[in-house]
Amino acid sequence: MVHHRGNNLHIVATSTALLTDHYELTMLEAALRSGAAHRRAVFEVFARRLPEGRRYGIVAGTGRVLDALENFRFGPEELDFLRERRIVDESTLRWLSEYRFSGDVYGYREGDVYFPGSPILVVEGTFAEAVMLETVILSILNHDCAIASAASRMTHAAGGRPLIEMGSRRTHEMAAVASARAAYIAGFATTSNLAAGRRYGIPTAGTAAHAFTLLHDSEADAFKAQLASLGPGTTLLVDTYDVEQAVRTAVELAGHRLGAVRIDSGDLALAAGEVRRLLDALGADQTRIVVTGDLDEHSIAALAVAPVDGYGVGTSLVTGSGAPTASLVYKLVARADESGELKPVAKRSVGKPSVGGRKHAYRRFDESGTAVAEIVCAHCDVPGPSDRPLLAQLVSGGEIVGREPLADARARHARAIAELPAPALQLSRGDVAIPTTLITA
Amino acid sequence: MVHHRGNNLHIVATSTALLTDHYELTMLEAALRSGAAHRRAVFEVFARRLPEGRRYGIVAGTGRVLDALENFRFGPEELDFLRERRIVDESTLRWLSEYRFSGDVYGYREGDVYFPGSPILVVEGTFAEAVMLETVILSILNHDCAIASAASRMTHAAGGRPLIEMGSRRTHEMAAVASARAAYIAGFATTSNLAAGRRYGIPTAGTAAHAFTLLHDSEADAFKAQLASLGPGTTLLVDTYDVEQAVRTAVELAGHRLGAVRIDSGDLALAAGEVRRLLDALGADQTRIVVTGDLDEHSIAALAVAPVDGYGVGTSLVTGSGAPTASLVYKLVARADESGELKPVAKRSVGKPSVGGRKHAYRRFDESGTAVAEIVCAHCDVPGPSDRPLLAQLVSGGEIVGREPLADARARHARAIAELPAPALQLSRGDVAIPTTLITA
């Protein structure tokens, strides 16, 4: 167990070393025995395809990968388990007890867009030290990219109106924290998740549920209690009994300074229109309307013409809006031979085109600054005049060098989206926004 | 932070108190101020519906809920965060610093089946102490029930052939551990996830990936290395280059005692048939065939006639096979009034039938022992002669009394499935297997 500092908070991190598939350790043992374990190797994380109909993906989770890498250590508890279960032999256990990743990692930065074939993460080291990271790296990136990719579409659909991430209850309790982080990168304004607030500094939001109204003897009692505690700027939930009556009660009790009302059921467009007219008629024309209740990017887009001031999104966000995993793979693309020379390798695959070897990646722009292609090439370490390099060094000789504030990732997302050609942002099922050009020569 | 003992392993557990939505704490503060916080309350976890076309659901996660409840404590780090962010006031912080759940919890046992309206978990306490548990309870149950429900269908489809859970890389790294646990409850034989092996004692399995073959100068070198390390009983992966040649090489090197071969791509039914004939022709008639590669319950069922000895399942398992969350809700169903009398409460909902008040639940059987109905009733604390009570006490006055070994949950799953009427086990989209009868009088 090591202590590390993230966002100026002390976090007690347990080892991530067993967030690993059994076969990674049996491969390690066999490769240590054959001697091939020490061959230099390059692994690459990429998606063969995007979820059906998606036009782009968003990179998220890289920062969490760096945290996991830092805590990837086999301590006495991990080694005892492996010994008791006889998963690997004693010489492998000794090797594991001294395990520190000593290689290099390059990757796309969080918030950037990606396409099929984009080398989102490149891990270089010995086969032994790199093969063991497969599962934990893929777990993090497959989850966080899936959530961020869905969140990005919702942010665009909301057209500047703020989005609240409130899906914690619909996903695994730790996935919830990571989901809040991914959504924030992709433009969500706040999260309901307190652990995400503490761990990552994300703004948190929330006021009251139906249970709070039901707890009290009347809706007016509940509103009074909430206003006494949170002040008139709070958001009152108005659909427990009768929306119209609730709005009248709310304005009566809070006055014109009432911050917002929340509608969580029914025909949200219709209800928002009626509530807006009523609020205005009651003089509460500054009171905002927040809507929640099984929203996704399509229903958010459909509410564009409704007088809505903010959206809360839960289930569809944390389940990736139909694509809960990003289909990223971690593939050995090159390894040294006996002479030490790095040789590209690739499985014989039907319908799975891939290029062996260590690659570079650039995004190419036209004169107006619009992205036109993703260039992935094996021998092109100098970008063209209109190319932006996409791979940043994240780990150098085992040392983490690629941390950045979450705000930088969030700003990068906004920029990267703005550079895409217009059709990329259509919500309908479509083709990938820009082609990925693999150059192997 | 507290230390607790699970499966005889010391686990350092951090506080679960911030795996909570912001609004639970603002409700707490407002209710403490209004005085209603101390009213006795009953919250119930249930599903209004199953995922589309599903005929039953499987309860999983209850044991993890008990772990989370035990670690739901506001220590200095949690309180400092809430103070710095001004999420609640000082008197609420004092209340939180002494927070211990002191109420009762009843629930369905893990591995049992559930239907719409089944009160899977019932939490009784003061409003204040019970309302705060909403998010962490729902996160755990919504995830674990979704995975177990998918896993159960796969187990049935496999018809006794063993299933390996290998989806860790396709889901959040901690959701992966919980997924392995849920799948094991629902009948999976093993998992690839080492953390699940250590934390929950689940058997783990795995041998080698394509990267191991690509690392070596030839497939034969790779197989030799694996056999030297893991012995002839291992499973050799035979689809890196040419399956037929790989099988010949494998038998040549390992002899007739070769444990198994794994096929991860192509037309699995066709390939399994060809490989079976080849293995038999080579004298390796005891060598098993394991297939992997984007399997779900439907493709598993379709392989029933193929000579397959085991299945590895990844993505579809950890994403709930189309239903990544179980749609469970945590609703206030009764609370005391000023006099202390418990009163049923319910939100006015269109199309959301619910019954207020504390309930009992029984499964009713016909003379042959087949389940015929789920009885949920408010005033029926004695089961009928053919009824089995479904709610067990899990927490009594704040003390956890409902822990059980995972093996018990796994055995219960097998029994509960065997009791269902035959149509329940069809994989096609259909109606809920047995009706839920709500008796309110």
From TrEMBL, chains A, B:
<keyword id="KW-0328">Glycosyltransferase</keyword>
<keyword id="KW-0597">Phosphoprotein</keyword>
<dbReference type="InterPro" id="IPR006405">
    <property type="entry name" value="Nic_PRibTrfase_pncB"/>
</dbReference>
<dbReference type="InterPro" id="IPR040727">
    <property type="entry name" value="NAPRTase_N"/>
</dbReference>
<dbReference type="GO" id="GO:0005829">
    <property type="term" value="C:cytosol"/>
</dbReference>
<dbReference type="GO" id="GO:0016757">
    <property type="term" value="F:glycosyltransferase activity"/>
</dbReference>
<dbReference type="InterPro" id="IPR013785">
    <property type="entry name" value="Aldolase_TIM"/>
</dbReference>
<dbReference type="GO" id="GO:0034355">
    <property type="term" value="P:NAD+ biosynthetic process via the salvage pathway"/>
</dbReference>
<comment type="pathway">
    <text>Cofactor biosynthesis; NAD(+) biosynthesis; nicotinate D-ribonucleotide from nicotinate: step 1/1.</text>
</comment>
<comment type="function">
    <text>Catalyzes the first step in the biosynthesis of NAD from nicotinic acid, the ATP-dependent synthesis of beta-nicotinate D-ribonucleotide from nicotinate and 5-phospho-D-ribose 1-phosphate.</text>
</comment>
<dbReference type="GO" id="GO:0004516">
    <property type="term" value="F:nicotinate phosphoribosyltransferase activity"/>
</dbReference>
<dbReference type="InterPro" id="IPR007229">
    <property type="entry name" value="Nic_PRibTrfase-Fam"/>
</dbReference>
<keyword id="KW-0436">Ligase</keyword>
<dbReference type="InterPro" id="IPR036068">
    <property type="entry name" value="Nicotinate_pribotase-like_C"/>
</dbReference>
<keyword id="KW-0662">Pyridine nucleotide biosynthesis</keyword>
<comment type="similarity">
    <text>Belongs to the NAPRTase family.</text>
</comment>
<keyword id="KW-0808">Transferase</keyword>
<feature type="domain" description="Nicotinate phosphoribosyltransferase N-terminal">
    <location>
        <begin position="18"/>
        <end position="142"/>
    </location>
</feature>
<protein>
    <recommendedName>
        <fullName>Nicotinate phosphoribosyltransferase</fullName>
        <ecNumber>6.3.4.21</ecNumber>
    </recommendedName>
</protein>
<dbReference type="Pfam" id="PF17767">
    <property type="entry name" value="NAPRTase_N"/>
</dbReference>
